[in-house]
Every structure is written in structure tokens, then in C-alpha cells.
Amino acid sequence: MKIACLVNTYPRASHTFIRREVQALERCGFDIHRFAMRSERGSLMDPADLAEDARTEHVLRTGIARLVPSALGWMLRRPVQTARGVALALRCGAVGAGGTPGTGGRLRHMVYLLEAAHVAARCADLGITHIHAHFGTNSAAVAMLVRVLGGPRYSFTVHGPEEFDAPLALCLGDKIRHAAFAVAISSFGRSQLYRWARPSDWAKLHVVHCGIEPAKFTAPTPPPAGGPRLVAIGRLAEQKGFSLLIKAMSLAAPTHPGLHLTLVGDGPMRGQIEALIAANHLGDRVTLAGWQDEAGVAAALSQAQALILPSFAEGLPMVVMEAMAAGRPVIATAIAGVPELVVAGDTGWIVPAGSAVFLAEAMAALARTSQADLAAMGQAARDRVFERHDVDVEATKLAGLLRGLA
């Protein structure tokens, strides 16, 4: 079965889970062609990402001089399907960006229509019978329009949280209706798709977890003594809750002289977070480590007793899976699919979202936990993530759905 993987921007440093899934599907026997609208080659540092970029057909690199004739040629030969595609694109674009009319949504969707017609033509040239898109955003819009224009069937994976912020603007219901099936990465994610799908489409909705490669995680190092020592990993953006984490650090610091947080990541809120650290006199308690590669992230986890995730919105974060695979318990907010993985009292601590007080109390609970108990929690975390998120096991589930279509 020759299929395509379709992503808006691919590969990206933050989307290694897509690369792992694609390669696992290839191990299942699929011939996979990678489509992406855009490339971020200039910002890629991982050799595996660079190699994947070289294997990917980037649609917008085709150039207008080739893309437009290809798209128009496909559409002119299929006037009925093209009329349906134009109507669907205009209707989905009418809501506009962020659900606000008059913000150029229709124009963007007409661009998606051209991209879709070109992709449909390329699929015909390559003998591709199915497209699987990642994210329920513009990549799924292109895949849906490919189908309406007479191209191959499609499915898509919804990761969240962005798709759940604007389901109407993203026409999630239409994308599910036209799809062969849709996948969520957690039961919570599927529950959100149930909200926007017709009841007659519920049978199309499935759960396939994002996966890790267990063999790449060697035996964990013992948790360091002292502390508590925490690591937080993620983009310095609003939804990650790092500003609230600094407030929690200020609450916990007076009673825990050894408390230290390493914050791995970069982003638009770095200046604000630096200012909060200074205002709360936490310069010796918080280290901003910046962006790190996989080796740097692994090193930061090994030097911490636990990962802390103070997020306000997530899907099911890869960083939680990686921390658990490294044998570290997790302090996390009770949002989205996180409680499906982090079990309070067994693999970590679950706290209500949006409360610096509860985060500080979890830090205190970590401080009271013995080295032996921390190691046991880390092993339980490792066992749980290997059981639920082995990429080859999860890819086999997706392969079964794809083969079922044949």
C-alpha cells in the first residue's frame, strides 16, 4: 500500500514524533511519500531531521510557475468535483482565522484548494491511494480538499490543543465527515472530536498514541540527592504555564533551601520569564538552559529528580513520555490527556491547573519523598510509558486502520 504523510511544515525539531511514526509505518511494510507545504531546513540541527527533510516533497518549493498549472490542469479536467471543492473551501474559509469573519479565511482556503489540486495530481503520478495528515489544521484542510477534488482518501491525526481552541473555524466536523477515519492521541482528544462529529461518524474516531522508541532509553540513572531538583521542558509560550511555575518556585523556595529548577526551552516569553525570575529573587534557584538537542534534554532529565509540567493546555506532551522513559516521575497539571499517563501517587503527582499553590505543594511532596521511593516511582513511570507508547505497537494500530480501508 503506497500512502502519503501530509504535514504543513515538516520536519520540525518539535515534531520528531511524526518522524518516528512514519518510520514505524515503513517497518510495517508501507511505502510512504512525505508531503509538506513548507520546510524549516534552515533551523534544523538534528541529522535525522535533515535527512527526513531531504526525503520530503515540499509543495511550496515547487514554485508558482509549476504549481498553478498543475493545480488548474487537475481542476479543469474535473469540473463537478472542482465546483464542490470551491464551495467547501469558501464555506470553511468564511469563518476566518480564529473564528472571526473578514480576516482572510476564504483567501487562505482558496490557496489550500490550489495546493490540494497539485497534491492530488502528484498522488495520481505516484500511485498513492491514501493520505494521512497530521494535525486537524491546514494540513487536514488540504487533505479534505484533495478528496473532494477527486483525489485519494484521507485520514488525519488530531494532536491538540490548537484544534480544540477553534473547532468551528477549523471545520473539524467537515474534516471528520469527509475522512475515512480520524485519530486522536488520547481518549480525552477523542472525546473532543465526539463534540464536533456527527454521531453517525463516531465509529470513525480512534485513539492511537504518539510513540517513543524504548530501545533508545538506556537504564535510568539514580535520581540525584538533595534538592528538590526539577526540570521543565518546553517552548516559552503562554500555554505552557511557566510564569505560574516561577510564582510557585517563589512560594516553595523559603522552606526548601535546596530547591532548583532548570528550564529547558526558548520562545517569545523568555524576556518576561527572566524578569519574573529577577523580581522574585530566584536567580540562584532557576537556570534558563535555552533550547537543547536530544542529548541535552536527556542530560537535564538525568540531573533532575522529577519533570514538572505546569501547562494550561496540551495534547499529550512528548516531554512527559520522555521523562517517564528516563525513569523520572512527573508533576503535571490535570489537563487533556496527561492524567491518562501520569498516575497520581504511582508515577508522579497530578495537580489542578492554574494554581501556583498546588504546584508548590507538589514540590514539597517531592522533597519529602525518599530516594528509594523516587526510584520506584521512576521505574513505574518507565514501565507505564513503555507499555502504552511503544511507537511500533502504536504504528501497528494505525497500520490496521489503513489496511482495513483496502
Label the CATH architecture of the largest domain. Answer: 3-Layer(aba) Sandwich
CATH hierarchy, class of the largest domain? Alpha Beta
CATH topology of the largest domain: Rossmann fold
Number of strands: 13
Mean pLDDT: 95
CATH superfamily descriptor of the largest domain: Glycogen Phosphorylase B
Largest beta-sheet details: 7 strands, parallel
What's the helix-strand series?
EHEHEHHHEHEHHEHEEHEHEHEHEEHHH
* Estimated helix fraction: 40-55%
Strand content: 15-25%
Low-confidence parts lasting 5 or more residues at pLDDT below 50? Answer: none
Number of helices: 16
Envelope shape: elongated
Keywords: Transferase
Pfam families: Glycos_transf_1 (PF00534)
Domain Glycosyl transferase family: 223-383
GO molecular function, one term: glycosyltransferase activity
Could you characterize what this model shows?
InterPro entries: Glyco_trans_1, Glycosyltransferase_grp1. It comes from Pseudorhodobacter antarcticus. One of its GO terms (molecular function) is glycosyltransferase activity. There is one protein chain. This protein is of the alpha/beta class and 406 residues long. The chain has 2 domains: 2-211 and 390-405, 3-Layer(aba) Sandwich (Rossmann fold), CATH 3.40.50.2000; 215-388, Glycogen Phosphorylase B (Rossmann fold, 3-Layer(aba) Sandwich). It is built from 16 helices and 13 strands. It has helices at residues 16-27, 47-55, 64-76, 79-93, 105-126, 138-148, 162-165, 172-178, 187-196, 242-252, 270-279, 294-302, 318-325, 356-368, 371-388, 391-405, and strands at 2-9, 31-38, 56-58, 130-134, 153-158, 181-184, 205-207, 229-233, 260-264, 286-290, 306-309, 330-333, 348-351. The strands form 2 sheets. The chain has a 7-stranded parallel β-sheet, with helices on both faces. Strand 8, helix 10 and strand 9 form a beta-alpha-beta unit. Helix 3 crosses helix 5 (105-126), helix 5 (105-126) crosses helix 6 and helix 10 (242-252) runs parallel beside helix 11 (270-279). The longest helix is centred in the first third of the chain and has 22 residues, at 105-126. The termini are close together.
